[in-house]
Amino acid sequence: MNPVSERRRMVFFVGLTIVLIVVGILLSLRYLSPATDLSQPYTFATPNIMAPASEEAAKVRDLFVFILVLALVVFVVVEGLLLYAIYTFRNRPVEQVPQILGNTKLEIAWTAAPAVILAAILGLTLQTMAETRAPAAGDYVRVTAIGHQYWWEFQYPTEGVVTAGVMVVPVNTTIEVEMESVDVEHGFWAPELFGKIDAIPGYTTRLRFTPTTIGKGEYGGQCTQFCGVQHAQMRFSVQVVTREDYEAWVQAQLQPAATPAEGTAEARGAQQFVRQGCVACHVIDGLPGAVGKVGPNLTHMMSRPFIAGGVVPNTPEHLAVWIAKPQDVKPGSLMVVGRMDEATVSDLVAYLTSLK
Ligand code: HEC
Ligand SMILES: [Cu+2]
What global pTM score does this model have? Predict the structure, then answer.
């Protein structure tokens, strides 16, 4: 092929690549920037794996630091030898270069040293895994975390609590989490509390953690497997509270929602919740017919600081936008609603905000 057509081909393919990248970016913008002004995401405190808040996360941090320091030592030694060799054996007339043919001791050393280092890392990793994954014993709290596109459900099988988005746990108690998924593979990770474990459809995975400090109170978590368009907005938080606060929270969660007094906006909202079909996808204990399990349980939704995986804070203003246009706030989410007038939305918000 002559050089001119070769260049044309190059220009064509480079141009095509650039066009495809630009089109890709433009298409993904719709998912990156929600269309409504009110959609300022809820801000989670940035997680820091170097500041663990549980026994297990502290062990993971220690292992990480050990491997990091070891890798730094290896880096300095290897790069040092490399620079030394580059300098000592730089290009010179052939007759000045010492000719070396093999060195058995050196070869044994550079085979054995990495083997020893890797064996040490393997040993410590297995030990950390055994320590952080051993089944909980004695007094512990069981939670089932269920991944849904794009939110987390938390069930407390012993207590009978079902909630979403926020996992409330008592401090200094082992928490045994079983992970499941109703659709695709999700990943469960709150970096300050435990390592990353996948939630796999049709299979139960487990993790254990023992929060040692209330510290920030709320620890941010994130789905860590690409599970669909709103994977990045599939966040959750873990609230570490005192034992008394935890017991009080459980008791509050077990109460059914109060039936609003007749003639109020709340009562109209409860009727609309049925009429608009919300009941098909949401459970509200105490509201007959609200049995759908597609979306989060809303019985005590005002006890949570954010909604829909942290896409917006849980305020009446954000709720109104979310209910009217969930696809604008979180495009691709599985909540689909019909067109509603403003009065209906405001009655619904009045009812939802009464669900303390
Ligand atoms: C087709 C099923 C479906 C219908 C119908 C539906 N929702 Fe939802 N809803 C969902 C799903 C799924 C989510 C979670 C979305 C996400 O986070 O990705 C959700 C989330 C919510 C949330 C946020 C809850 C939280 O804690 O994160 C509220 C509030 C809500 N819906 C209210 C309503 C109201 C009010 C209606 C009726 C007008 C309604 N929904 C109709 C499926 C539905
Ligand atoms: Cu996910």
Answer: 0.84
Query: Nearest ligand to the C-alpha of residue 316?
Result: 1
CB 258 within 8 A of CB 300: no
Give which of 264, 249, 307 is closest to 282, Cα–Cα.
Answer: 307
335 Cβ below 6 A of ligand 1? yes
pLDDT tens digits for 194-214?
Answer: 989 999 999 999 999 999 999
What are the structural domains of the chain? 46-89+104-254 (2.60.40.420), 265-352 (2.60.40.420)
> How many Cβ atoms are within 10 Å of 221's Cβ, its own excluded?
27
Distance from the Cα of residue 261 to its chain's centroid: 39
Among 230, 266, 268, 282, residue to substitute to test ligand 1 (most atoms within 8 Å of Cβ): 282
Backbone φ and ψ for 167, nearest 5 degrees, come out as -105, 115
- Residue-wise pLDDT for 241-263, tens only, equals 999 999 999 999 999 988 888 88
Is 307 touching ligand 1 by the criterion CB < 6 Å? yes
How many whole angstroms from 198 Cα to the centroid of ligand 2? Answer: 9
> Ligand 1, residues 183, 278, 322: which to mutate, most atoms within 8 A of Cβ?
278
Three-class secondary structure of residue 27 per DSSP: helix
